[in-house]
Write a structure and sequence with these properties.
Length: 193
């Protein structure tokens, strides 16, 4: 092959090779760019998902904390309401001494305590205003009746041998009824608040 033809063939071959190399390099660069773009998008997706999860967890923690605080406020308000109810009952305790229902309940208490003690001696403590009627109910028994300013209403009994103590005073009865009242009024308080 003559030299000019050979040089022309070599030039064409070099141009084709350069063109092929450039084309391959462009393809490889595009592949690298596509892979990098896909990896960046995947990383961004994972980062966004992690941030979304973190924000959702933080929001849920705030919601739970807000619910707890609201529940605590409601419970404190209920407790304060019950405190006011029981304080009002304690303050008004002396007024029950004149109620016919109280007199009947007191007589029932005295009778039951007397039955518990049987013939054993004991001491009944009651409000000073109740002494005469309690004495009339235990007349002829081994029970002694003492006025007690610490008993606003109700009855406190102690067997002389110490084997039995019964506290049916209004403060103790109110304390026992507090839980029952809290359970009973709960639906009404929830409906109102």
């Amino acid at each position: 092959m003559p030299l000019p033809d050979l040089l022309e063939a070599l030039g064409r071959s070099n141009d084709e090779e350069v063109s092929g190399l450039l084309s391959a390099a462009r393809g490889e660069a595009e592949e690298i760019r596509a892979t990098a773009r896909a990896e960046a998008e995947a990383r961004l997706g994972r980062t966004l998902e992690a941030e979304r999860a973190r924000l959702q967890q933080a929001a849920e923690r705030r919601r739970v904390a807000a619910r707890r605080e609201a529940t605590a406020r409601v419970l404190r308000a209920r407790a304060a309401l019950l405190d006011r109810v029981f304080e009002a009952a304690r303050v008004r305790a002396p007024a029950v001494l004149g109620w016919p229902e109280y007199a009947r309940a007191l007589e029932t208490m005295v009778r039951r305590v007397h039955e518990l003690l049987g013939a054993d001696p004991g001491t009944l403590r009651c409000a000073p205003g109740d002494v005469e009627r309690v004495r009339s109910w235990v007349a002829g028994s081994t029970l002694s009746v003492l006025p007690s300013p610490e008993v606003p209403a109700g009855l406190h009994c102690t067997a002389d041998d110490g084997r039995l103590t019964v506290d049916l005073t209004l403060p103790v009865r109110l304390a026992m009824e507090r839980l029952a009242l809290a359970i009973t009024v709960r639906p009404a308080l929830e409906g109102a608040g």
